[in-house]
Design brief:
The protein is an alpha/beta fold. Helix content is about 35%, strand content about 15%. The strands form two sheets. A six-stranded parallel β-sheet has the order 2-1-3-4-8-9, sandwiched between helices. It has a three-stranded antiparallel β-sheet with strand order 5-6-7. Strand 3, helix 4 and strand 4 form a beta-alpha-beta unit. The longest helix is centred in the N-terminal third of the chain and has 14 residues. The N terminus is likely disordered.
């Protein structure tokens, strides 16, 4: 049986073989040499493997946080623990739900820039669910199944609405290792909005069926983020890792 650690190692090894050669830092070198990446719901830290291989090849130290998916304070504490271990300016990157974590933990003094990848980006104290209801509901919402206080995406919703632009075989592997989310996590609210004081970058997934792309555009515009649009599903970090890695490298150029 493949556990999370085995799967992570296997993906990392495969990514290393297929390193994308063209990504490079500007000649002056980056202001940040570290990048910390946080995964969202229905995933684990291995979801960043394709991006990690690319930013490592460009000279950045990368760490993927294993988000416990229990409560927002627990998730923020896990990210802060990793941020505290960094030896200097660090780009903090979040996908999907973990934009909540980036928004809160991004206040850490080691964080020099924030990158949101098809991610939530609430304001301090904002009810994200209420904000999201101002836009048409994405199809994936109907595919969340709860067993007691733990939720996961059904296989059909995962393949169609979460990982829709990935080969089916690869999407099924990702489905098999999705990590369940506790209901308590979904009720959390941020108390800070780090994007109000830190340089911010946002990658909109134009074909997203998990977060409404217009909601992503609204959040990116509100924070004044440098924004790119990627013709991708919710999992642009896997289907379009070159573009996501390049955005992270651009964020690394920001002054500390």
């Amino acid at each position: 049986m493949m556990n999370r650690r085995t799967f992570t190692s296997a993906l990392a090894a495969g990514s290393a073989v297929a390193l994308m050669p063209r990504l490079a830092l500007a000649q002056k070198g980056p202001a940040a040499r570290n990048v910390v990446l946080v995964h969202g719901l229905f995933a684990d830290g291995s979801s960043w493997s394709e991006v990690i291989a690319r930013v490592q090849a460009a000279g950045l130290n990368a760490t993927s946080v294993q988000n416990p998916l229990t409560t927002l304070p627990d998730a923020v504490a896990s990210a802060r623990h990793v941020l505290a271990r960094q030896d200097g300016p660090t780009v903090l990157v979040g996908h999907s739900f973990s934009g909540m974590i980036v928004t809160e933990a991004g206040e850490h003094p080691n964080v020099s820039a924030l990158v949101y990848v098809a991610a939530r980006a609430p304001d301090a104290g904002e009810d994200y669910t209420a904000l999201a209801k101002k836009f048409p509901a994405p199809p994936a919402s109907a595919g969340i199944v709860f067993d007691g206080d733990e939720g996961h995406l059904s296989e059909a919703a995962f393949l169609r609405d979460f990982a829709g632009d990935l080969p089916e075989a690869k999407a099924k592997v990702l489905y098999a290792v999705q990590w369940p989310v506790k209901k308590a996590l979904l009720a959390g609210k941020t108390t800070h909005a780090a994007w109000r004081s830190k340089p911010s970058f946002y990658a909109v997934s134009t074909e997203d069926r998990t977060i409404n792309p217009d909601l992503e555009r609204f959040m990116a515009r509100r924070m004044g983020a440098k924004t790119i649009e990627v013709k991708a599903s919710h999992l642009s970090l896997i289907s379009h890792p070159d573009e996501i890695a390049q955005l992270i490298l651009e964020a690394a150029q920001q002054g500390a």
